[in-house]
Amino acid sequence: MTQASVQEAQTVRAVVAAWALLAVRLLARGYLVFLLALAASATVPMVFGLTGTVVQSGSMMPYIDVGDAVLSFPLPPGADTPMGHVVTFPVPAGSAETGIRLHRIVGTNPDGSLITAGDANREVDSDPLARADIIAVACLLIPWIGLPAFWLQHGSALPFLGWLAVTLLALVIEFRASRAETTERRDAGSRHAAPPRRGIPALVHGIGVESVLPVVALVLCAAMVAIAPITPSASSAFTGHSNNAGNQWTAATDLVASKLVFTTNPSNATGGAAFGTQPTIAIRTSTGGSTVSTAPVTLALTTPAGATLNCSANPKDADAGSAQFAGCKVDTAGSYTLTATSPGLAAATSASFTISVGPSYRLVFTTTPLNTARNTAFTKQPVVTVKDAGGNTVTTSAAAVSLALTVPAGASLTNCAANPRTAVAGVATFSGCRINTVGSYTLTATSGTLQSAVSAPISIFNTASKLVFVVSPGSTASGVDFAAQPVVAIQDSTGNTTSGTSSITLAITTPAGATLSCTTNPRSAVNGTATFTGCDIGKAGTYTLRATASGLTAATSATFTITAGPASRLSFTSSPSSSTSSTVFSSQPVVAVFDTFGNSVASTASVSLTITTPAAATLTCTSNPKAAVAGVASFAGCRVDKAGSYTLTATASGLATALSSNFAISAGSASQVVITRSPGASVRNIAFPTQPIVQIQDDAGNPVSTTTLVSLSITSPTGGANLSCSINPVLLIGTTATFSGCRIDRAGTYTLTASAFLLASGESATFVVG
Length: 770
What we know:
Helix 1 (3-43) crosses helix 3, helix 1 packs across helix 5 and helix 3 (157-188) runs antiparallel to helix 5. The protein starts with a helix and ends with a strand. Helix content is 14%, strand content 34%. It is α+β, with helices and mostly antiparallel strands and 770 residues long. The radius of gyration is 61 Å and the shape is elongated. It has a seven-stranded mixed sheet. A four-stranded antiparallel sheet has the order 13-11-17-18, with no helix packed on it.
């Protein structure tokens, strides 16, 4: 081999070695950079308050694996519940593991507690989670960074040593390559040497910039090994992998229960028979995904229309997101849909299904006979209907239905037109049936294997003969409906109530001015009984009622009492008598307190009397107002001063007023002369322009008709003044006399005096003569 070929081979080997060294260094540097990036991603967020945990099991696979670091933020007390998110919380007491669990919230329980589950688990966690127990909500995943800590904590030496060896190898390669680059750079720049450096710059310069990466990686590796035994970790209960690969790190809507779906619809059935295919309802996410919810699901008929749905259990708790009902059936024939509901979830409606009339199952009395007289055809004949299990009439049935006395006790059911009776369109209508012995009975209807039916009780009685008060009126206040309304029965001689329909009339046995009022009176009996309503009596007293009906013996009720109602009005039981002026009435007014119906009420109301139209007259009494005693106010000493015709008005707080009868007040005996018109100013010896008028009055000033001579004179004549009139004295006939031509001969100020025999004189007003 020539020297040239040897040199060429050496050159090739050098180039290959250089490229191999470059590839190895790139791999080592990439590994170290990746390690540093993971470490930075895990540590830098912690500066901002996040906390990190290392996953210890595979229950959150495939997206959260063993050794992954999960960064979480604390859940504020007032924040919304993070439904669908991954959270950390204390492992429940009594669990196989201890510490912190990292699982996803997948639903809520009826009591408000939370349901959690691992993404890889088929079942939800057995222990509910309280909202207050949530430690933090996961927000960032750093894959693999926690594997060294996991290996050390679980004693997995082989993978830990393998990782450590790979990491140290990468550090050695990077460190040696960095040192070689540093040496070459120093040799190339030795002739441009700089002054010596001190401190950290000198240390960095001494190591070389290229050596910073391996040094930092070495420190990080040592730190990870040192803190591995105390690294926070989170575990979970692991039950196996699910087939759902769609779980995601923040896929709340893919796990949270949102709606109900009928996965199996009920099949058609007959009335009262369980569906051949029972309904199954799934609890799904908003996108239609499966859930593991255990929420209760309730079924109901969407439009019942009188039908009833019955199931073995309703509501039904879901099991792993599915509620499978059993024993569900609908009684009434028709077309229906079911509606499934659950708190907080969108409802679902099933496909339509039909309930048809089922096979004949039982008999039912749709008409029971009424009470009837012995040996008399029932006024209502029995009707028996063939029903299916759901109570629907089997219109195709032509079953032969037989009637018999349930407990004959010596009696016989006779004269039925046909017994047994063939049903027509499922209905057997009997006729002519009767019972021959007095007593109380029931009928039993039978037909082959069908479930039999028993009628309501029937009373068989002798011929109706009398009325009886089953309920007598109850005592009450006047005008108020009796506390117990009267009920009258038509009975036979042995006291059995008949089915009679006679018209029964009620009346007060001894009215004494009282009136009985009822809503309907007379009233026709229904099945032998007449129940009256709205009955009342207005007048207070003690009464009995008498019930009568054509051809039947009358009945008398028990005694009952009507008391006065509340005070309502006043009434004059005695009006004032006519009298003379200012003379006490010979008959004094008496006012009583009554209720609305005119019954005296034992009130103590204060009653006041006034003249209805006074016309300047005055009423005077010994006491006014006057307190009633036992509902009566008796006045005394009452009189009126002015003559005239009057009425009195009686008033009391809260009561209607009363008006007395009319009475007259006449004038008393003549007692005085009164100048009712005085002379006006005048001139001496000239007749007064206004001539005086005089009147005869009694003590109260009432005019009195009489015949007497009345004289006028100057009251106190001065200076020899003289009064002259055309006639003086004047003969007064009646009540009033008018003087004429009267004058005074001297100027001055005067008054006149009018006088009559045995009467008090009267004096005019002052007047002036000029």
